[in-house]
């Protein structure tokens, strides 16, 4: 029977490919990370808004970190492996070799990253069709999804288009490398490729946007075999992949997830009893998982499909089997904070002071804000400083990639105090953006009362507290900081047959660490900040309208 094989001595490997690094973890049956390793991966930026990677470099890093976490462990105790990755596009030729996605013809650069915005013209034309599949992406497709990228390749790299034999979402590339099976995950094709749970691929969509050649080969190049996340792929690890990864041949390999969805899996199903949370004794639909890293994703589930303007989905069983998923998001969060802080004239001073105190730059900034706040709550320091955070366009809920960042309230001062203030205002702007997404989801029919945060930014206490205070909702942090890796390991656990379902594995492997409550006494201040926040985008659109009238 499923579940009988799982013991405290069973281990599962989770492999996570983020934007700038690959990580692996060895996770036990209770969800504890036993070993962890990380390795950077290369990013090329040949032009502004274009980001490329190498699938060979990514796989080599996967093998390296996996070997490190399983070193010295009895292989018979390792029961399964799960992969997650960013929703980047991998292009292979008919012999499954890397194929260039760039004008320079560099075949090793065969991955268009998720955050690449080269296909602006293509996505505008796709959205102009108003095709019915767009209803499942909030009414307008994002430039970060795969159809506009495919169309860009066809129109700009005809030689690569003709040579291409396979287009894969990065999570599916990893399961193919591990098993030799080109099956796609339901998660990737639903969320990034316009596959629908009732119709599958829609011929009329691909024909209307000019990619009818994908229809003619019965979708062989983009996938005509789809598996549910956590379902076992093929016969497990091939001998070659097993050798590369340092794992036994035939080990169960799970159908993969997009990295944000793996993070959602790692946190959203945790047992909350005894923590006095509003979601206790409530269905999982009362929870929102936030995965906060380079970008942020906001994952909410529902029992029936909810169509939310400007929010992706609903996608059936894309993350939690049997439930519909809506996914909001912010294209630049961790990347935005780094951009603002490192680009400030006082950054060298911050670096030297942080190094002298043996703290990270962000720990030092948080301490510096405590020094300059005097009698005020820290958040109130930005009463005259406001940020609109869409430096890389707006993903949700406005779906406007042409929006730009804004800062209102600058002075001539350029010291460390001013750097700390703009850092705080940027974090608040990101949290205000989350509130904007939440309110849009709730207006459409979601009923969310608790946030579950994971990812790199969830390690920053200021980021977490601002999200609690600005949304007015408690924030739950996982016992394991590496919740995305736990989510990937949950997939491996399901593929092994040790758990009867993903829901069972989520409940047993997801653990609560800490709860951060909102300070309701600050509510009025943040309500006013939110009013200003919404005015900023109104003013941006007004002045753009004026300039466009030239």
Automatic annotation (TrEMBL):
Residues 11-266 form the Carbohydrate kinase FGGY N-terminal domain. Gene3D superfamilies: 1.20.58.2240, 3.30.420.40. CDD domains: ASKHA_NBD_FGGY_D-RBK (cd07782). It comes from the Eukaryota. InterPro entries: ATPase_NBD, Carb_kinase_FGGY, FGGY_C, FGGY_N, FGGY_RbtK-like. Coiled coil: none annotated. GO terms for cellular component: cytoplasm. Keywords: Kinase, Transferase. Belongs to the FGGY kinase family. This is FGGY carbohydrate kinase domain-containing protein. The lineage of its organism: Eukaryota, Metazoa, Chordata, Craniata, Vertebrata.
